[in-house]
Amino acid sequence: MKKLLIVLLTVFFIFKFSEAGQSASTNLNASPASSPSPSPSPSPSPSPSPSPGQDAFNSLKNNNFPLSPEQIHQYKDLYDVQKKAEAAPAGSAPSESSSSIIPVGLKPGGVQPIVRIAKGMITSIVMTDQSGRVWPISSYSLGDPAAFNVQWNQASGVLMVQGLKDYGQANIGILLKGLDVPVMLSLVLGQKKWDYLDYIRVQGYQSESEANALQTQHAPAMLIQLLNGIPPQGAKELSVDDGAVQVWSYQGKYLMLTAGTLISPQWQGRQSSTGPAVLNAYQLTATPSLLVSMNGVLRQVTVSDSWQ
Q: Is the Signal keyword given for this protein (predicted)?
């Protein structure tokens, strides 16, 4: 009987210990659910390192092309502005050119005429007698060759003068054929305006060609009639773009009536009226363009047959 009791007690205690172990295991397994711990955030994946070839390319690009396209365009614009400023003449505005007839007297006490020259520009100086005929030049002497460059066709009465400096002043002496007295002119650089064409008219003197023409040729009678407002019979009036000039075509030549002075082309006959309102009548070769001086101002007159 005792043995049976001992066996039953042993089985009882084994059962109790087994049940307590299972309960403890269950509590341990359920404890995380009652107080859940935050799950760790996933760590970012490391970026792939550039290859050695890419590093070499980037270094080569930065060394050879350090500027962006926008910076290159900006540099070109600045360079263009700089070159324009260097090439522009001194002053805040572009220089202006003009043309005029400059009377010159050779008597003592006169004022030396001034011709305005610009650096890098050509000024044509045309020597004429009192009637406007071109007077050939025999020689000239320049005061400052370092400041002015002079070109001369020895068969003409024209000098081409170019300025070599921004500022400067000199004079030039011009000897005309058949005239022993030189014509003196002042050349000035650096003015706001410059002369592109000047007619230097020598007052009170005639060239050899003018004197010979006066000896061998008289003004046609038709020019005297033209001064009275009567063109010769058969003359046909032509169209001109200047109301101060009238031109007729007559026997293959032109007849011209104006209050101004004909500068070009060279006339073949001339007659002038007397009185307060001076008129000039000219006979000249047919030409589509005339250069006329009106009170010292040069005018380009175009002639056409549009009225025919």
A: yes
